[in-house]
Design brief:
7-stranded mixed beta sheet; alpha/beta; Rossmann fold; 7 strands; single chain; about 200 residues; about 30% helix
Amino acid sequence: MRVLVCCEFSGVVRDAFIAAGHNAVSCDLLPSERPGPHYQGDVRDILGDGWDLMIAHPPCTRLANSGVRWLHERNLWDEMREAAEFFRLLLDAPIPRIAVENPIPHRYALEIIGRKYDQIIQPWQFGHGETKATCLWLKNLPPLHPTNIVAGREHRIWKMPPSPRRALERSRTYPGIARAMAEQWGTLDTPGGLR
């Protein structure tokens, strides 16, 4: 499959699909941290390039329920609307199968996005002893099934101290989740059915 992983600078999801035998490309405004196929620029430039599957990680800063108070206190409504419209653009992209991930959103973002998420996953369901609720909006994809439930429940992401790289570190996809995406969604034929 031709797989686009947008808003990903780390290469984690891209590399999981490449390891599973797919033609995967990451895209971000930042350069890729790992060597590999990467388009540095605006994903809107390549959305119509004939992808079979897209995994999208749009910025969540103005969409997450955890930051809703700042919309009022700092008058960030325009930034929130712009972020939600970009999210909606990705969800409605002309690609047969799509997964868009983000933290639990606030109601203002959901009004613009137009629908609730399909699934919530946690890193501890995929071999990582941490909590980080991640919502998935799915188009023509089944929900992810847990692959390795572990007992640990550490709030490492929430406890990260302030730093210039904090937002980047918080945005990384856990390798176990990336592998599950590649293993479970990478076995789907395009445009229909299971292999």
